[in-house]
Amino acid sequence: MKNAAQMVQALLLMAMYGFLPFVLVFSRYDISMMIGGAVVFLTIRFWNVLWAWAEWIDSNLYEVMYPDSGMLDLGNGASQLILDMVSTGLYVIFPLVFTAIMGWFGVKAGEHVGNLMKESVSDSGGMGGAGKLKNPDINLPKKPKS
User: Fold this and answer.
1) Which conformational region is residue 26 in: left (phi greater than 0), alpha (psi within -120 to 50 degrees), or beta?
2) Helices 77-130 and 2-26: crossing angle, nearest 10°?
3) Does 144 map to a domain?
4) Which residues, 6+ apart, have CB-to-CB distance to 88 below 8 Å?
5) How many domains does the chain have?
6) What is the pLDDT of residue 121?
7) Which residue from 1, 23, 43, 86 could staple onto 102, CB 3.0 to 4.6 Å apart?
């Protein structure tokens, strides 16, 4: 399961790196899109950590739940099946939940930064407009005579 997950991760990253220039151009280099893209890249790269955690849980869960049984104790097939389903589900559920949380965070962070950029541009335009002279000939220094 872990090998297949890493192959899927590699293919996703390859596709994302390939389409990154198109996304940036079509979004007109919007800062919120850049922040959202960075969060997506970091999230997919972090899947390795989640899979390592799932592998550790998988290797230690049976020992913790059944400390008195040996390695070849196959007497309780239903509990073994449940443990296999849980450990296999961790390889899928952990990254999905983490990706959903980080996706929500990335969208909100991109919106906030985009709003800050729009406010700063509108404020600077207002400040620039306030400095205009009503009659440009009045307060200008005279040109020196040569």
Assistant:
1) alpha
2) 20
3) no
4) 1
5) 1
6) 74
7) 43
Query: What does the angle CA 47 – CA 52 – CA 57 come to, to the nearest 5 degrees?
Result: 125
CA distance 57 to 87: 7
Q: What is the pLDDT of residue 32?
A: 83
Q: Which domain holds residue 106?
A: 2-68+75-114
Rounded Cα distance, 28 and 22, in Å? 10
> 137 in a domain, yes or no?
no
Q: Is pTM, for the whole model, over 0.85?
A: no
Report how far apart the first and last C-alpha atoms of the chain are (Å, whole number): 85
Tokens of 109: 């962070």
Q: Which of 39, 51, 38 is nearest to 9 (CA)?
A: 51
H or E element, residue 46: helix 31-65
Euclidean distance between CA atoms 24 and 47, whole angstroms: 24
Domain contains 131 = no
Residues of the chain with pLDDT under 70: 69-76, 123-142, 146
